[in-house]
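User: Working on a comparison across species. This one is Cytochrome c1 from Accumulibacter regalis. Can you predict its structure so I can line it up against the others?
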Amino acid sequence: MKKLLTALLLAPAIAMASGAALHLDKAPDVQGDNAALQSGARTFVNYCMNCHGLSYVRYNRLTQLGLSEQQIKDHLLFTADKVGQPMRIAARPAEQKTWFGATPPDLSLVARSRASGDGTGADWLYTYLRSFYQDEKRPTGWNNTIYENVGMPHVLWQLQGTQIMNGEHKLELATPGTQTPAEYDKTVADLVGFMVWAAEPEAGFRKQLGAGVLAFLVVLFGFAYKMKKNYWKDIK
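Assistant: Here's the predicted structure for Cytochrome c1 from Accumulibacter regalis:
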């Protein structure tokens, strides 16, 4: 019985260890760079929001990235009438399921949910969006080395170009896109950065607050220690 319980407890770890190693590229950190995050928001709205929404984020949240409400209305407000509405898509879930075979997920928290021991959610997204390749066996014509048999087409293919899997089972750019590889990597980095921000818009404030609280506790400890020494100085 004891051996059985031990085996059950170790089963998940054994299963993880036996799986294929997943190599994730490190995503550039663009948090705090409003220009990069604005670029990522633009890419998301123009390429991703046809299928994926950010229902936990309202359009007026984008003012935190340095955009005015008028700029949001003029350039990013495509699926709502007011900036106070959530960033939902116009398509209905039932229609999407009919079109794609499954309803594309909301991406509000994907940058957090994809975090693992192999890397952060940002690393996963950054690698994933650069790992599509042409595969005629797939219904969409595309596959992905990070997410095998993915149902999602490569919506950024015009920017990146067409990658193929060569004889050495490595990705190779067969047809260039409108961007150079370096430019495409920057576009993806900005897009991933925006998705990281969208998963927790208050992360920057939370970290600043945490640093401030720790600094306050350090100062408070100094005063408390001095008071303690002064209080007990005559007691032996």
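For your comparison, note: The mean pLDDT is 86.

User: Helpful, thanks.
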